[in-house]
Amino acid sequence: MIKLLKKSSFEIFFKNLQTQGKTIYAPKNNGKKIEFSKIDNFADIVFDYIKSNQSTKEIVFPRYHKVFRYTKQADDTVVLQDFSADSVPETVVIGQRPCDAVGILALKAIFETDIADKPFTARFNKTSFITISCTKSDENCFCTSSGLNPGSTEGSDILLTPIENGDYYAEILTEKGTKILEANASLFEDSPEIDKNKYLAKVEVRFDNKIIHEKLNTIFDHETWVEQSLQCIGCGACAYVCPACACFDILDEDNGRSGFRYKCWDSCGFGNFTIHTSGHNPREVQSQRWRQRIYHKFSYMPKREHVFGCVGCGRCTDVCPVNMNIMEHLQTINAL
Ligand code: SF4
Ligand code: SF4
What we know:
The chain has 11 helices and 12 strands. With about 325 residues, the protein is α+β, with helices and mostly antiparallel strands. The protein has one domain. Helix 6 (about 210-215) crosses helix 9. The site of one iron/sulfur cluster has 12 residues, from helix 10.
């Protein structure tokens, strides 16, 4: 369904969502970077930005969270306090980019294939995503090489595309989006069908992720993995900013008679990520870890979860301290 949301109605829309009990996340300038934060005041939302430092991943997959707590009773029986979906607030995310919306779908595929990850599912089900299309891009963006574009609708409940006068062409895409529309019906006006493409950022196509997917069937032992990874220091920054990276560790913190188990982000780029208790490490060197990163995103995930694990946001290149550029590496693979 297509609607029009006037710029002048956005603040009322925001206040309505607050009144309706929603916790709202949106991009905010923290003084140095644009980050998705809980927003209490509409004026704090930044609309004019290209991409946030972190994606919205953290809202559904926190970098650290307790899975359960336990307490030993006087008779040594253990009382377990499991994760409860009731602890998750109804949340609305405003202003993420279309690539990040698809990143959340990649996480959903990972966390809900085979055995569903209860905390992820609870957070996902209670979160609605009002995405805003990109009207600007930067040199590291390559969504169009990843099967997407600056106005992709996948993963969004409502997609807003900025048009003339700062108004928004609103695509209502899911049941969650329809519920938001119905609860704020007076603010969404009728809109004619328009060609939204003329408002979108132009992002050059640099390679084809489907060709990468095919190539990976034959280049596992190619020297390119060593060549590409020589700079990599295994810091893991690329995984932490990636909207589609889902590596995590599970650890226990025991305080004697009580404690908790927690889950925290991890990275396949870390040297000890795959180390076995015996001391053997099947990915001993960085080239094997870099190869794993590319294979997981472009070969294993499409085969197993039917989604690519890279949405072309370019954040890994933005943050890499040694200037590893995934887009250039993928172009190299594309040309092999
Ligand atoms: S951010 Fe750069 S140096 Fe750090 S692990 Fe990723 S590719 Fe390697
Ligand atoms: S691998 Fe890099 S470009 Fe691809 S989605 Fe992750 S951070 Fe973005």
